[in-house]
Write a structure and sequence with these properties.
35% helix; Rossmann fold; eight-stranded mixed sheet; alpha/beta
Length: 326
């Protein structure tokens, strides 16, 4: 029985309107998530990971963001063509997003209870919006993320809680009602290492318990290896490699992926990682051809003028590089 595709992004482009033109941040990006799958999206800061995920929920600022081309198919429907009512249903029952900074994700002037219960009220059908039912769901949501003394937390303001507790509250908001896809945007970045590990363990447990698909955005290859079934590597707005997690770490193919893995510090020592020379290109005037070619030691004349297609090299492994055409 073939696996069911839950999310299918095809040829997505996202531009930002700025003084002097458009920043072409996401470029012909394609990505798939199967039902129940854990997918990692990795790459340097500024490569367009968060922009892509916000485009899925259509929460990019309409005053500056522009999507000239592409499709975002969720459960057979194009999100980019949904009306207001359909988008509200998508955000309350289909897809949830956990942002990387819980401090800015929670409103400081409302209690945790007010914010959590508003999320629940919005997601429930009108006939089920009784005050006690909403409160009971809020308490259960806090229990799911292992927060003790739920009544006290519901009456607290975000500033009265630690960073780890605030992140757990953000996760509880995402799981108060059943969701088919959870997007976690570097959920442990602003937390210390111990709390980050607890949050990642919690996410993995919740995903397995509810059978939810997840897209984990991270710049940490170690986290991606631990948490995901399959990994997409993103560079300057494009997917350059995709493979099962174990395959990617065993046999990376794209020069950018090889450079990323070589940049990871080794516990055993052995000198300082070399890193990748250069920087992400200027999105206002990106290079022609392969966007990685200005930083690639293996590029040739063809890379300067043509964008490499995504090539299937077998075993669910895909790479965007002319070196693997044969």
């Amino acid at each position: 029985m073939p696996e069911e595709i839950l999310l299918d992004i095809k040829g997505l482009n996202v531009w930002y309107r700025v003084y002097g033109g458009y920043l072409k941040v996401v470029h012909n990006l394609s990505l798939q998530v199967y039902r129940g799958e854990r997918v990692g999206l990795v790459g340097e800061a500024g490569c367009g990971k968060t922009t892509t995920m916000k485009a899925i929920l259509r929460i990019l600022p309409e005053s500056v963001a522009h999507i000239p081309r592409g499709e975002i198919i969720f459960r057979g429907r194009d999100v980019l063509k949904m009306n207001r009512a359909e988008l509200q249903k998508l955000r309350s029952r289909g897809i949830a997003m956990i942002f990387q900074d819980p401090t800015s994700a929670l409103n400081p002037v409302f209690t945790v209870g007010e914010q959590l219960e508003d999320v629940i009220r919005f997601a429930l059908p009108p006939e089920e919006r009784q005050k006690k039912r909403i409160h009971d769901i809020a308490v259960q949501a806090l229990k799911e993320v292992y927060l003790p003394d739920q009544e006290r937390i519901l009456q607290s303001y975000p500033v009265q809680l630690s960073g780890g507790m605030r992140q757990r509250i953000c996760i509880s908001m995402a799981i108060t009602t059943p969701r088919e896809l959870l997007i976690a945007d570097e959920p442990g970045t602003s937390l210390d290492v111990t709390i980050q590990d607890q949050i990642l363990r919690l996410l993995r447990e919740l995903v397995e318990k509810h059978g939810t698909s997840i897209i984990l955005i991270t710049h940490s290859l170690g986290v991606a290896r631990q948490m995901t079934d399959r990994i997409y590597v993103m560079y300057a707005g494009s997917i350059v490699e995709a493979a099962p997690s174990a395959t990617l770490f065993k046999e990376p193919l794209h020069p950018y992926t090889v450079g990323l893995l070589a940049s990871v510090p080794k516990i055993s020592g052995g000198g300082i990682a070399e890193g990748i020379p250069g920087r992400i290109p200027n999105y206002l005037n990106p290079p022609n051809g392969c966007r990685f070619q200005p930083r690639c030691s293996l590029s040739d004349d063809r890379c300067l003028s043509q964008s490499p297609p995504i090539l299937d090299v077998g075993g669910g492994h895909y790479v965007a590089c002319f070196r693997y055409e044969r």
